[in-house]
């Protein structure tokens, strides 16, 4: 699913050519994928971009490490909360 999401997002960006999907919209779309959040957290927060060859990309990132970590925590808590709400009504 991660590959499909990234390829669909890339296709939308190519077709759109910057008319509708601006930088803030792209950042919001990247929050919909936990793998992209993890990548952005590593590139911006832990300074591993110098080892991955993506120093230029990490330098343009303006999302704070706190927002990225909150996004990752939300990706953990949302499915856990849904599973808890679903299984609390079931008898074992």
UniProtKB/TrEMBL annotation:
An example Gene Ontology molecular-function term: ABC-type transporter activity
Keywords associated with the record: Membrane, Transmembrane, Transmembrane helix
Spans traversing the lipid bilayer: 65-88
GO cellular component: plasma membrane
Pfam families cross-referenced by the UniProt entry: ABC2_membrane_2 (PF12679)
Protein name: Uncharacterized protein
Annotated organism of origin: Bradyrhizobium icense
